[in-house]
Specification:
This protein is an alpha+beta fold and 204 residues long. The protein has four helices and eight strands; from the N terminus they run H-E-E-H-E-E-H-E-E-E-H-E.
Length: 204
């Protein structure tokens, strides 16, 4: 099996758990901004509320509930032989109960792609995505949908772009990844220590 297929299968949307009920947060027209404050600095993402409305609304629902406050970037998946390329993966704080999974918004439907700075939603099977998200530090086209490919070829749901803070993304990608992984195929990818998310808030 190719490394790309293995990464596609193993790219996690592992659980996070939030004790609250779904709020009335819906994606506003336009392109909302969210500031993700980490211990290494701020990452500002602009969301594609019109192109990926379901995924954007889902992410904003967690943001508005404060689910990512005290969450972490816990994984840095670097491309083999290219340590400055890859993705960083985040999840809410512990003991946060997820809202129901959402319908998958494929890149073939949204027209979005996993380029440098793309923010996207983690998942296992299609239709299981909840609150784990990842940011691309470099182009990652294998994460796009490839309808003609064998197996799970639906890719991941891209829903926005980093507009400020790519040095922070690259810094997190470069940190030590000798943490203990919950998944055998992600050994050597878990950050030690994880990078704290201090807050994630909409920007006015």
């Amino acid at each position: 099996m190719s490394s790309a297929n293995l990464k596609r299968r193993s790219f996690l949307g592992a659980a996070g758990l939030l004790m609250t009920t779904p709020g009335a947060s819906l994606a506003a027209p336009g392109k909302p901004l969210v500031v993700i404050n980490t211990s290494h600095g701020a990452i500002v993402v602009q969301l594609e509320a019109q192109k990926a409305p379901l995924t954007t609304a889902n992410f904003l629902r967690y943001v508005d509930a404060g689910a990512y406050d005290d969450g972490v970037f816990f994984r840095a998946s670097r491309d083999p032989g290219a340590p400055k390329q890859g993705t960083i993966v985040a999840r809410p704080r512990a003991k946060v109960l997820p809202f129901p999974p959402i319908r998958h918004e494929s890149t073939t439907k949204t027209g979005l792609r996993h380029t440098t700075g793309t923010i996207s939603l983690g998942r296992f099977a299609t239709g299981t995505a909840t609150n784990n998200f990842f940011i691309c530090a470099s182009p990652q086209p294998y994460l796009d949908a490839h309808p003609g490919a064998p197996g799970d070829n639906q890719g991941y749901a891209a829903f926005g772009q980093v507009v400020r803070g790519m040095p922070v993304v690259r810094k997190i990608l470069s940190l030590p990844t000798n943490g203990k992984s919950e998944f055998a195929d992600q050994r050597g990818q878990w950050l030690s220590p994880p990078v704290p998310i201090r807050s994630a808030r909409r920007s006015a």
